[in-house]
């Protein structure tokens, strides 16, 4: 079996659903169920005996040690994290506790547990640390995409906490020969995402006739990765990735925030026309920019393509339409907790 942390969140829940659909390996899912964790995300596998949900905190060393001893996982896929930049600006404490201290606790518990395993079992174990492109910092419009060896330059408490966690994981590999692999992915989107993130926020606001707030001039650029493409990449990295390596996972779809919002509006104009609101782009409103707002992120994904044969399958246009359609079909479910 494998142990997944944060498996009731956006990427984690999609990963578990994809994993159980494609693999035979059972999953133990450890999630604290904060505001961003939603058990409804896992409804499709509620009766699946291969999925065991455990409510708990990765910072609880005793609990993590117990799960490792009890279930003997062959891998840990570590998704659990505080991930919203705005929240990190206003409440950085939670980000340090979960992203840094929580990751440290996982590493320490796993290192101690591995020490007592037979060599053959230790050799099979992998620790997959799921991180972000934000650790590389902002890029100029004409700069090449970040590679796995680009220097870290985090701008927010969120990205700094993820950078710290990356450094811890890398240090554990180098110091203790801990069998870790790091992935840094670009902006994920798709079903089950918490409504505070850009695409679900704008979709749900537009459906309710609320304004669509865009920071600054709206020209900040992000690379967009459909969540199931990321899940496939993570499975590939777990299966064939080299221990101690880092792999960038991107969608090769750089878009300005303004382009994304306009694309959402166009999709809603087509899929859910409303005489009172169409065109939905009329709801677009520019607001004061976020402090320290990075201008552009972009990832060079040649390493995972050349070494492991992975590349994204979903185009942004088709992925966005699927995402908007998913929220349309589930509008109002969970009182805003749709993720």
3D structure, described in words:
The protein is α/β, with parallel strands linked by helices. It has a single domain (2-194, 224-252, 297-313), classed as 3-Layer(aba) Sandwich (Rossmann fold), CATH 3.40.50. It has eleven helices and twelve strands. The strands form three sheets. It has a seven-stranded parallel sheet, sandwiched between helices. A three-stranded mixed sheet has the order 7-9-11. β1, α1 (10-22) and β2 form a beta-alpha-beta unit. α2 runs parallel beside α4 (92-115) and α9 (257-271) crosses α11 (316-329). The longest helix has 24 residues, at 92-115. It starts with a strand and ends in a 10-residue tail after the last helix. The model is unreliable at 332-339 (pLDDT under 50).
Task: Give the helix tally.
Answer: 11
Strand sequence of the main sheet, in spatial order? Answer: 3-2-1-4-5-6-10
Question: What is the CATH homologous superfamily assignment?
Answer: NAD(P)-binding Rossmann-like Domain
CATH class: Alpha Beta
For the sheet with most strands, the description reads: 7 strands, parallel
CATH fold type: Rossmann fold
Q: Work out the radius of gyration.
A: 20 Å
Return the structural class. alpha/beta
Mean pLDDT: 94
Strand content: 15-25%
Helix content: 40-55%
Poorly predicted tracts of residues = 332-339
The global form is globular
